[in-house]
Amino acid sequence: MQTTLVNEIETGFVERRRSSMPSAPASVEETGLDFPFLIELLTKTLFIRGQLKLLDLVTHTRLPLVVLEPLLAFMRSKQMCEASRSSGAETAISYNLTELGSARAEDYLRKSQYVGPAPVSLTAYIDQVKQQSIANMHVSREQLSEVFTGLVVNQRILTQFGAAMNSGRAIFVYGPAGSGKTFIAEHLAGLLTGNVAIPHAILVDNEVIQVFDPLTHVPAFSPERSQRNGAPSDSGGLVLDRRRMSDQRWIMCNRPVIKTGGELTLRMLDLDFDENARFYQAPPQVKANNGLLIIDDLGRQLAPATDIMNRWIVPLDRRVDYLSLHTGKKFMLPFDVIVVFSTNLSPTKLADDAFLRRLGYKIYVGALSEDEYAVITRQVCEELQIPFTEQGFKYLLHGLHEKYGKPLFACIPRDILEQVRDFARFENVPAEMSSDLLDWAWGNYFTHD
């Protein structure tokens, strides 16, 4: 009985820690932002959106009522906005800009066209990233087995990946093309546990840097659940109270997973400043903080692989990254990411010993055993509805792989058998593992001198 109680208490503690959101600011000072910046943001919001009710301002700025009230009072005192009330309810108050307020808004928009949720301070962001660090996440063999259930991966390699995910350090995966490196790397995302709070944006030296990316970050809760926790609702159902709730400038998300490949350039690893809009997009390593960053096909980028690898020396070693604003100001951000480098090239061709030492785990993924290759072939046959035959498999193994000296890579059964299926559809004949069809598919798949 006591053991059960202890487990429930520990489980409850872990869940609270995993879903820890910063508390909503109870004053302008607690936002960590300057009063003038918030006035500018509120003025631009009213200019772009037009007349807004108090509830709409809460929704657009993600700021609580106790923060908006003094800002709006100041704007009214300076004749920048007007308030009108359609009924006695507090939610019935609407605000719109005066001519003076509109003129100010145009000036503010020339400085920056950012009109969105209020950002968080750099200090708050750093503290939150440290609190929900990827280093706090533990991966067990049971989790690993569950994520890779039904997948054919050598147990030695799985053990290496399981240990590497507990280290919080970078993982260098290398081996020949088609051996399954990317496939394994993508499945590592299933080992990520816990939720993390991600800000819509952060503010550095009065410059806005957008962090939350709807194409990358996956909210952990449904809109309905978020509303129950005090999040703004576009439906208008939020009650405007002054109780301490979570800070809605943050979104609770699953740990992020970002994958980039041959399109990666050195410039993409720096802040992306929009010259017209006058605000920034965070680079992929910042969006991936507290999560996983997969750099696939290393060596196929436009920039030399050695330059890309050298860019990561300081972040991998010190767990911090240095970025620069267009004004020249440099600042430091946490680098709390498990980076997975995947490449077909030999490690010694990409980096020197000093850099390879910083990677921690170097995992080679090569050819399969005959038994592993047979399991994959059976799985593909079942999926494609092609009858598996021992005779056909032996021909694939000895009549083709062995004859032509091709290693047993994980990608080959699917690639070959899909061509068998394609041919059968075209000729309107049964798809089967006959020597003729396998020969035909093999000849299409591999190039000839």
General description of the model:
With 449 residues, the chain is α/β, with parallel strands linked by helices. It has helices spanning 2-18, 35-49, 54-61, 65-77, 99-111, 122-131, 141-147, 155-167, 181-187, 223-228, 284-287, 305-311, 313-318, 347-350, 353-359, 370-384, 390-404, 412-427, 435-445, and strands at 52-53, 81-85, 93-97, 120-121, 171-174, 195-199, 201-204, 207-210, 250-254, 257-260, 272-273, 280-281, 291-295, 320-324, 330-334, 337-343, 361-364. The protein folds into three domains: 34-118, Arc Repressor Mutant, subunit A, CATH 1.10.10; 134-235 and 245-364, 3-Layer(aba) Sandwich (Rossmann fold), CATH 3.40.50.300; 370-445, no CATH class. The chain is elongated and about 85 Å long. The chain starts with a helix and ends with a helix.
SSE arrangement:
Elements lengths: L1 H17 L16 H15 L2 E2 H8 L3 H13 L3 E5 L7 E5 L1 H13 L8 E2 H10 L9 H7 L7 H13 L3 E4 L6 H7 L7 E5 L1 E4 L2 E4 L12 H6 L21 E5 L2 E4 L11 E2 L6 E2 L2 H4 L3 E5 L9 H7 L1 H6 L1 E5 L5 E5 L2 E7 L3 H4 L2 H7 L1 E4 L5 H15 L5 H15 L7 H16 L7 H11 L4
Parallel strand pairs: 4-7, 5-16, 5-17, 8-12, 10-13, 13-16
Antiparallel strand pairs: 1-3, 2-3, 6-9, 7-8, 11-12, 14-15
In short:
With 449 residues, this protein is of the alpha/beta class. The protein has 19 helices and 17 strands. It starts with a helix and ends with a helix.
The number of helices is: 19
- The helix fraction, in percent, is 40-55%
CATH topology (fold) name of the largest domain: Rossmann fold
Largest sheet: 5 strands, mixed
Poorly predicted regions are: 1-19, 233-243
Please identify which CATH superfamily of the largest domain we are dealing with: P-loop containing nucleotide triphosphate hydrolases
Residues in β-strands, percent? 15-25%
Which CATH C-level class of the largest domain is it? Alpha Beta
**Taking Cα atoms only, what radius of gyration do you get, to the nearest Å?**
28 Å
